[in-house]
Amino acid sequence: MANLCVGVIGCGNMGGAILKGLAATGKYSLYGWTRTMKRLDPLLEKGVEAAQDANDLVSKSSVIILGVKPYQIEDVIGSLDKDLLSGKILVSIAAGTSLKTLKKAADNCCTVVRCMPNTPAMVSRGVFALCFDKKAGDREKKCVEGIFADLGLCVELAEEQFTPFSALIGAGPAYVFDLMEGLVMAGVTLGFSHAQSRSMVTELFAGCAKMAAENPAEHLMAMRDNVCSPAGLTIAGVNAMNEDGLSAKLGKAVLKANKRGREMED
Ligand SMILES: NC(=O)c1ccc[n+]([C@@H]2O[C@H](COP(=O)([O-])OP(=O)(O)OC[C@H]3O[C@@H](n4cnc5c(N)ncnc54)[C@H](OP(=O)(O)O)[C@@H]3O)[C@@H](O)[C@H]2O)c1
Asked: Which fold has domain 170-263?
């Protein structure tokens, strides 16, 4: 069976990472078009083909992913030949750009999908929210879900859930890196080198994430309590952490981000 042809217009940080992750699977014929074509060089070595221009990419691809900035999205879609685009799948990863705006820019000639990734997509461990145009059939949904499932976890959401998703998961890496940094510096305070502390803390997060993923039925608090022996060192640390209300602070941060996201909706 022929490979699915996927093209990315706008191959910067996120568009480039999507191409790189898909290239590693060996399952796709991949095309890239971006304003500064030199940025494609490392991807060409991985088997991505450079398109002649955006419409050449559209003509070669069944699924077209737009990786340009939100303020550029309507102009880029507007510049695409609608006859070439007709009947294809157009996926936008632009933050805050609604399906309605995307469909209007595309003159409703193709199936439009809104996708919100987070930065671990850059190492093929992203979480991707997907929202499909009503026009999308099961075959098209499966096709897009298959592409993003090769780069991490896919969740289909109603469009009104995109802002809460952004507040929790899109912004999530910022919360997690802040927590990691706090622990790394605590390690340095206790006498570990920065490099030692960072690598140990990184593995701590990776290991805990794996335990949580492999035991979805086990409550996270039960996993925490398993580490706390009576009158021991861990419970002393956990008690001190909770005096400062860390969980409450995280909850507050996500709600604040959601409120700001609602103010910014398209
Ligand atoms: N980065 C994230 O964490 C993140 C998370 C969620 C969603 N997103 C979304 O992902 C999109 C891309 O973000 P990014 O961080 O990857 O930005 P980026 O690194 O600036 O990538 C955008 C790319 O688009 C290219 N471009 C601009 N105009 C173009 C045109 N007319 N035709 C073809 N290519 C064009 C740019 O070219 P130049 O190289 O010449 O500038 C650049 O390479 C945004 O819409 C953003 O909302 C990003």
From this structure: ProC C-terminal domain-like fold (1.10.3730)
